[in-house]
TrEMBL record:
Pathway the protein takes part in: Nucleotide-sugar biosynthesis; GDP-alpha-D-mannose biosynthesis; alpha-D-mannose 1-phosphate from D-fructose 6-phosphate: step 2/2
Keyword Metal-binding recorded: yes
EC number: 5.4.2.8
InterPro entries the UniProt entry points to: HAD-like_sf (IPR036412), HAD-SF_hydro_IIB (IPR006379), HAD_sf (IPR023214), PMM (IPR005002), PMM_cap (IPR043169)
Keywords: Cytoplasm, Isomerase, Magnesium, Metal-binding
Name of the protein in its database record: Phosphomannomutase
Cofactor requirement: Mg(2+)
Organism, scientific name: Chlamydomonas reinhardtii (Chlamydomonas smithii)
Oligomeric and partner information: Homodimer.
Length: 244
């Protein structure tokens, strides 16, 4: 890799951590070791606060780039690069129409349990959870198993795609209990506009299949995509590629 400007870009859930869990010290130490060889960036669908809960409070200074909400909130070397707003993009009337429909749909949804916080409003996206984000970890695990068979999120997304086709939105199923909603082009490839100086962008993610929230950036011609199955697998693949 001599002479080339290389960056390793990582998803969070399922790649650096178990879903919504805190990264292990071993993983965090490994990432700092990796930074001695290549630039390292983080790109997650969650907001900055949630990513910091998983990767530590020093997040912005411990990585070269941090892209929260798919890069809609972007930082380089601890400094803010840009912030994009869903509210500005859609306008209040369209946003309200969409949110009202989602809440009605969830109210009529017959699933084993429901908790609270069914919609989380972020800078650049909405996160929709049929069970509600206030559920416990064990309830998350149970819903994930239930959803694999019942296809609750997939069916929900198809209804929204049809009903709101005119809004030009993308729906991305990620994590255990929810899916993200954002304008077309605001998936994880959005962050690539901030990485034009690099000759090679290696992306590591677990949900690289079609419909997964790592798919678009994994498939992008700008990246070299790597599918991982766990944080241990991420470490193994990075060692083989960068540290061997």
């Amino acid at each position: 890799m001599t002479g080339k400007k290389v960056i390793a870009l990582f998803d969070v859930d399922g790649t650096l951590t178990a879903p919504r869990k805190v990264a292990t010290k071993e993983m965090l130490d490994f990432m700092q070791e990796l930074r001695k060889t290549v630039k390292v960036g983080i790109v997650g669908g969650s907001d900055l606060h949630k990513i910091a809960e998983q990767l530590g409070d020093g997040l912005l200074t411990q990585y070269d780039y941090v892209f929260a909400e798919n890069g809609l909130v972007a930082h380089k070397e601890g400094k803010e690069l840009a912030v994009q707003s869903l509210k500005t993009f859609l306008g209040e009337d369209k946003l309200k129409e969409f949110i009202n429909f989602v809440l009605h749909y969830i109210a009529d949804l017959d699933i084993p349990i429901k908790r609270g916080t069914f919609i989380e409003f972020r800078n650049g996206m909405l996160n929709v959870s049929p069970i509600g984000r206030n559920c416990s970890q064990s309830e998350r695990d149970e819903f994930e198993k239930y959803d694999e068979k019942a296809g609750v999120r997939k069916a929900f997304v198809e209804v929204l795609r049809t009903k709101f086709a005119h809004l030009g939105l993308t729906y991305s199923i990620g994590g255990q209990i929810s899916f993200d909603v954002f304008p077309q082009g605001w998936d994880k490839t959005y962050c690539l506009q901030f990485l034009t100086e690099f000759d090679e962008i290696h992306f590591f993610g677990d949900k690289t299949y079609k419909g997964g929230n790592d798919h678009e950036i994994f498939e992008s011609e700008r990246t070299l995509g790597h599918t991982v199955t766990s944080p241990d697998d991420t470490r193994k693949q990075c060692t083989e590629i960068f540290l061997a």
